[in-house]
Specification:
about 150 residues, Ferritin, about 0% strand
Length: about 150
């Protein structure tokens, strides 16, 4: 695999690990905050991240890469949210989810110029709009809880 393609695959795998961690985090939050009345918003965000993970998986395979299978260090973030929900309650868990959405959005923005043109289009047209939607959903939810 040529260097530029390897760089794109590496970035896509980093994005994929972040999306897998987000799916894991939302699943934990849904289980911990089941009584909160915000289940449908959390489920929508979880499904959006799962869809993005599938898109990234396909893009990596299209380039001959091997998709990451787990969240790696991002899985620690999932445990943080779970712990926050258990110890500090709903507001802390939602704040942590919003922070994760912030981080994901910044990762995409930062690494977008390093991607090959086709991957850049996929991220810009399919992934980032969803990232912005889930970020907005968590930001709005956080404001309603304040």
């Amino acid at each position: 695999m040529e260097k530029a393609m390897t760089e794109t695959v590496n970035h896509l795998n980093s994005f994929l690990r972040g999306e897998l961690a987000a799916v894991e985090t939302y699943r934990l939050a849904i289980n911990k905050l089941d009584h909160s009345g915000h289940r449908s918003v959390l489920q929508h965000c979880e499904q959006s991240h799962a869809m993005r993970a599938r898109i990234l998986d396909q893009e990596i395979r299209r380039r001959g890469g091997e998709p990451s299978e787990g969240s790696g260090p991002w899985g620690t973030f999932a445990k943080l949210v779970e712990g926050s929900a258990a110890i500090f309650g709903e507001k802390a868990a939602i704040a942590a989810l919003e922070e994760g959405e912030d981080h994901g959005r910044e990762d995409y923005r930062r690494d977008l110029p390093d991607l090959d043109p086709a991957a850049r289009l996929t991220i810009e047209n399919e992934v980032m709009p969803e990232q912005n939607r889930t970020h907005q959903a968590m930001s709005s939810l956080k404001k309603t809880l304040s």
